[in-house]
């Protein structure tokens, strides 16, 4: 299943076994922590975390709105627009500082944090280049202590990202 909320997931699991739920999850999108992960764990459903790098923002490659090509769908995303963009860029800078301390990239730190949330969480970062695939795989070599996880939470707490995941009309279609 994809983008199902807790109630929908429970109803579906009563009808047919569900192997996995795919939903956006990252430091950038923490909604699954509001009960959805609890339900997947209760029902024994794997959680496939798409956009674990915040639609590329946590990769640190996007520094200004103009870095997005004219036809890039992210130009329509509230998180990439106006004041939200600047606030989110500041969040990325804080994550990058922590990553530097761990001798990693922000991408690797963000992925390592997801992996540390449990064996049932499977991040699926998208990439078009081999070097980023190899960089992402480096997240598996990062060990995060309870102190590291606390510090990540301090610099990127739930709700810190500015703007909705999608334009408002589309948000009505997710996690239902």
Fold and architecture overview:
The chain is mostly helical and 176 residues long. It has helices at residues 6-15, 36-43, 82-101, 106-115, 130-137, 146-155, 168-171; strands spanning 20-24, 46-50, 121-124. 31% of the residues are buried. Strand 1, helix 2 (36-43) and strand 2 (46-50) form a beta-alpha-beta unit. Helix 1 (6-15) runs parallel beside helix 2 and helix 3 crosses helix 4 (106-115).
- In helices, the fraction of residues equals 25-40%
Order of helices and strands: HEHEHHEHHH
Low-confidence stretches: none
How large is the radius of gyration? Answer: 16 Å
Task: Provide a quick synopsis of the model.
With 176 residues, this protein is mostly helical. The protein has seven helices and three strands.
Q: Mind sketching the topology for me?
A:
Elements (H helix, E strand, L loop, with lengths): L5 H10 L4 E5 L11 H8 L2 E5 L31 H20 L4 H10 L5 E4 L5 H8 L8 H10 L12 H4 L5
Parallel strand pairs: 1-2, 2-3
List keywords for this structure.
40% helix; 176 residues; globular; three-stranded parallel β-sheet; mainly alpha
């Amino acid at each position: 299943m994809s983008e199902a909320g807790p109630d929908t997931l429970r109803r579906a699991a009563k009808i047919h076994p569900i192997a996995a739920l795919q939903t956006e999850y990252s430091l950038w999108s923490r909604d699954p922590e509001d009960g959805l992960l609890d339900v997947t764990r209760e029902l024994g459903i794997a959680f496939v975390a798409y956009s674990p790098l915040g639609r590329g923002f946590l990769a640190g490659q996007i520094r200004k709105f103009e870095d997005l090509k004219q036809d890039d769908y992210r130009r329509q995303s509230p998180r990439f627009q106006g004041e939200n963009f600047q606030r989110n860029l500041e969040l990325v800078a804080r994550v990058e500082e922590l990553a530097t301390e761990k001798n990693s990239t922000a991408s690797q730190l963000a992925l390592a944090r997801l992996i540390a949330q449990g064996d049932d969480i499977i991040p699926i970062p998208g990439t078009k280049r081999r070097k980023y695939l190899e960089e992402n795989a480096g997240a598996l070599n990062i060990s995060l202590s309870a102190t590291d996880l606390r510090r990540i939470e301090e610099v990127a707490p739930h709700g810190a990202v500015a703007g909705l995941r999608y334009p408002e009309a589309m948000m009505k279609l997710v996690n239902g």
